[in-house]
Amino acid sequence: MVAALLVVTLVAAIYGNRHERPPVGAVLYLWYGGPNQDSGLGTPGWNSSTYPGGGTIVDQPTIGYYSSDDNETFAWQVSQMQKAGFSFAVISWWGPSTLGESGAINKATHDFFAYLKSNGSTFKAAIMIDAYNGTHGLSNPSLASDYDYIYNNFVTPFGKWYFDWPGPLLMTFNPVTPLDNDSRFTSKEIGNYACEPIDTCAAHSLNQKLDWIFWDTPAQYFVGQGGSYNATNDEGPPVISSDGEVTLVPRIDSYYDQGYQNGSFLRFDPSLSKGLYQEQWGYVLSHSSSVKLVIIYSWNEYHERTAIEPHIDFTANINSTYLSNLTSYYASKL
User: Where are the alpha helices (DSSP H) in the chain?
Assistant: First the structure.
């Protein structure tokens, strides 16, 4: 009887681990509203001309044009992300500044972690150091200072709410190359083969080895491009990294934001009529044995129209929760 019980326990453990769902997360932007954290059209992030987060937005969140640094906003977003099957968010972080819009993003990041802690949330967050120094990336001393700041201000006080994979995950958006010798973090560089026009990534060649690819889309979903974008650099199925990470995108459509992007735009399935997001999830499910981590770009990047946050869509006649419901459905199949 004891031997049989041990066999059953062992089999359950093996198959339980084999079928454990990979974590699913989304890139979260906290650049809306601020530096005074007001809200509405014309404020930072919402059809503003300032940076970061400026540019034209044509979709509207169902709760209106919100302030990112607000507990009611956090409560709504975390609730909706959990409904969509997410267990964590990756926060686009623009440095340790206390001034201007970068300072507002930093403060909102502190406040987001504090919100998770004060509510005893099971939701977690990680940091992605964005390319806030433009095409030059960050020098090693500056990046080391950022690592210290993130460890001391986010990991140490909010360790229970900081996402581990398997150590505290710290991503850098190219051209920011991560430090490989900091054992406090699991450091990963993520990006595209071609960089957005505002950061030409002159220091990086197209053959550069990135840890993780931000997104790729099959050519049949391409609709158009303009300016300095070259769609061929981003065409193909989702890229599953050697350690099992894959990033998916529901669509790309910076057409309406091209004035801010110096006339450049890129469009993949802008009206959600071609089924790009379904195809990307289908690819992941058919390769599920290789997938260990899924990141969605994005929860709320409205300028490139990758947002799956519930919103009123400008070009697609869909329910406001269409994309988040799709995410919940497919995530449950992993």
Answer: 2-18, 71-83, 100-118, 140-150, 276-286, 322-333
